[in-house]
Amino acid sequence: MGKVALITGVTGQDGAYLAALLLQKGYTVHGIKRRSSSFNTGRVDALYEDPQVSSAKFRLHYGDMIDSTNLIRLVQETQPDEIYNLAAQSHVQVSFETAEYTGNADGLGVLRLLEAIRLLGLKDKTRFYQASTSELFGKVQETPQRETTPFYPRSPYGAAKLYGYWITVNYREAYGIHASNGILFNHESPMRGETFVTRKITRAVAAIHHGTQEKLFIGNLDAKRDWGHARDYVEGMWRILQQEKPDDYVLATGETHSVREFIELAFAEVGVSIAWDGAGVGERGIDANTGRELVRVDPRYFRPTEVDLLLGDPAKAHKVLGWHHRIGFKDLVKEMVQADLSHVLKEEHRSNG
Ligand code: NDP
Ligand code: GDR
């Protein structure tokens, strides 16, 4: 009998990659999706169409991280061997506007699942993965950031995730639940949500290239991130839960790049070289050959408090989990731009009838 996994946030970027990975490994996968007035299962629909995946192996259930009784019932009904808690209001800037909701879903939501495991007497059966984040490190204390680096979150999102991190550690220590944190640095893919900076850039590059968008409005060009590929990171999540002992791990590439570099590389993919002009709010990115303005800094995208630099040290994951990222920065940018070049074309054909 294969294992049973329950994934919250299955309709998100990581949920879709993780569900595919676990199905490939022979798991039965139960996913929790939210009721929405518009379509929200686009990323996992392909899994239903895969002839290898029977409908009995992949099941979606309605649920929400702020609804305890629903979560308890779903854990009871599915009796999972592994729970991957990926659901969250995951946008840092949005968390400044929806701070209480973010605290509820991203912080207390973690507690609700851990309590479900405890109350249902599943502590010896069910392993728990918490989607913790490099946003916990926030204001730079040391680089590279590792498991022992002090936390200093810089947003309601980071603060909510801090609670999620520690309640996971606490339930491990207090009740002996096999509960682990993956402290994941930014990871992207063609399935990344369209308002995160990488996808926003690659979509804009594709749309500018196809002539359906004028320019890209952007926030802080000098923020630096350790960007990896989601496909590699979900493999790390799975490895974390296969360990005999629960623990906390950083997953990162060990390289950092600025938003500015990401933009330059993405435009280079369509043969455009960007020259920068001005500084701060007035800064512009110009096509070095034609002089056309393609990028403009817009203070609407500045954050009240910013995380300036993230650079992870994945040494523990290398050593204990045998996990290494495979897809590098350049290949990531290339894959995302190429995917958006075809997405934008398809959208255009659709809108032209
Ligand atoms: P996404 O934003 O793509 O996906 C989030 C998922 O959570 C979606 O399925 C969303 O549903 C669901 N969700 C949101 N709120 C609720 C709620 N109240 N109840 C139930 N489901 C909810 O995020 P990612 O896939 O990128 O990230 C997965 C997890 O990993 C998140 O917890 C994120 O905070 C964390 N993380 C992500 C990193 C990254 O770089 N991607 C790095 C470190 C941590 P819907 O589709 O309906 O919106
Ligand atoms: P982040 O990702 O905040 O690191 O959180 P995001 O892509 O939103 O921002 C990265 C950096 O780019 C700067 N930036 C912009 N960001 C957005 N979204 N839009 C812009 O126009 C823009 N211009 C500049 C930001 O200021 C920031 O410095 C992601 C999420 O997936 C979290 O859920 C996860 O926990 C962390 O990564 C690790």
TrEMBL record:
Q: What is its EC number?
A: 4.2.1.47
Q: Which keywords has UniProt assigned to this entry?
A: Lyase, NADP
The protein's annotated catalytic reaction(s) are: GDP-alpha-D-mannose = GDP-4-dehydro-alpha-D-rhamnose + H2O
- S-adenosyl-L-methionine recorded as keyword: no
Against InterPro entries, the record matches this protein to: GDP_Man_deHydtase (IPR006368), NAD(P)-bd_dom (IPR016040), NAD(P)-bd_dom_sf (IPR036291)
Domain of life, source organism: Bacteria
Mind telling me which Pfam families this protein's record contains? GDP_Man_Dehyd (PF16363)
Gene3D superfamilies attached to this UniProt entry: NAD(P)-binding Rossmann-like Domain (3.40.50.720), UDP-galactose 4-epimerase, domain 1 (3.90.25.10)
- Cofactors (names): NADP(+)
Task: Please list the residue ranges annotated as the NAD(P)-binding domain.
Answer: 6-336
The job of this chain, per UniProt, is described as:
Catalyzes the conversion of GDP-D-mannose to GDP-4-dehydro-6-deoxy-D-mannose.
Q: Which HAMAP family match?
A: GDP_Man_dehydratase
Database matches in PANTHER family:
GDP-MANNOSE 4,6 DEHYDRATASE, GDP-MANNOSE 4,6-DEHYDRATASE
**Family according to the record:** Belongs to the NAD(P)-dependent epimerase/dehydratase family. GDP-mannose 4,6-dehydratase subfamily.
Q: What is this protein called?
A: GDP-mannose 4,6-dehydratase
